[in-house]
Amino acid sequence: MTSADGGERELILRVATRLFAGLGYDGTSISQIAEAAGLDVAMVSESFGNKRELYLAVMERAHLAESAGLERSVAEIGAAPPEEAPAALHRLVDDYIDFCARNPEVPALWVHRWLSDASDVTELEPQYVQPLVQFVADALVPITAGSPDMRFVIWTVIWSTHAFSRGGVLDENGERRGPEDPETLRRFRAHMHKMVHCTLELPGSPP
Fold first, then answer.
1. Which are the contacts of 9, defined by CB distance < 8 A and separation ≥ 6?
2. For the domain bounded by 1-49, which CATH number is listed?
3. Do 1-49 and 59-199 share a fold?
4. What DSSP line would sit under the chain, residue for residue?
5. How far apart are CA 10 and CA 32, in angstroms?
6. CA distances from 84 to 21, 74, 87, 129 (A)
7. pLDDT in tens for each of the 207 residues of the chain?
8. For the domain 59-199, what is the CATH code?
9. How far, in Å, CA of 51 to CA of 44, rounded?
10. Alpha-carbon distance 124 to 163, whole Å?
């Protein structure tokens, strides 16, 4: 038995991401992943080991995709003149909302963890989440001095965006609308801009 080639490994990761995002780690088995990928269980196990190791690979890839976009956006804040830094902060909010809208499986993976999914896998938050939140918080210090606790502001954006990406909101008729609806996405984006701008007491008006 030989391990999967690059194409099959990518297929396994894509399928595992979709199933972990939809069913959670605890609700997904290696056999389900193999069946959905059209491969046998031995091939999946040969390529990634057990379910825990495959889950770690999925979460690492999700983190790398998320952090790559945030690093670019945060770098813009640091490079911006003081008078342009608030606008760069708003672009960071936009970029995060757009990332979650384009990659709904990423917030889904983390929402499952908030609900105690994969509770025996404890290293992900210290390894991925805490450093990324601190990275953003440190970049915002020059433009948010004296503002409320930055970690709570950052987490409010994360909580709200993840929940919106997963569950959307109910419109006036009781219909659920999410990021796939352009007008609902526009209104959510405007709301998050106003929340961040006002909470941090930034100068001027929110975009």
1. 47, 48
2. 1.10.10.60
3. no
4. -----HHHHHHHHHHHHHHHHHH-STT--HHHHHHHHT--HHHHHHHH-SHHHHHHHHHHHHHHHHHHHHHHHHHHHHHS-GGGHHHHHHHHHHHHHHHHHH-THHHHHHHHHHTTTTTT--SHIIIIIHHHHHHHHHHHHHHHTTSS-HHHHHHHHHHHHHHHHHH-EE-TTS-EE-TTSHHHHHHHHHHHHHHHHHHTT-SS---
5. 16
6. 37, 13, 5, 27
7. 344 567 899 999 999 999 999 999 999 999 999 999 999 999 999 999 999 999 999 999 999 999 998 888 999 998 989 889 889 999 999 999 999 999 999 999 999 999 999 999 999 999 999 999 999 998 888 887 766 688 899 999 999 999 999 999 999 999 999 999 999 999 999 999 999 999 888 888 887
8. 1.10.357
9. 9
10. 20
| Residue 4, amino acid | A
Domain boundaries, the chain: 1-49, 59-199
Residue type, 197: H
Q: How many residues does the chain have?
A: 207
From 179, 158, 156, select the one nearest 169 (Cα to Cα). 179
Residue whose tokens read 């020059």: 142
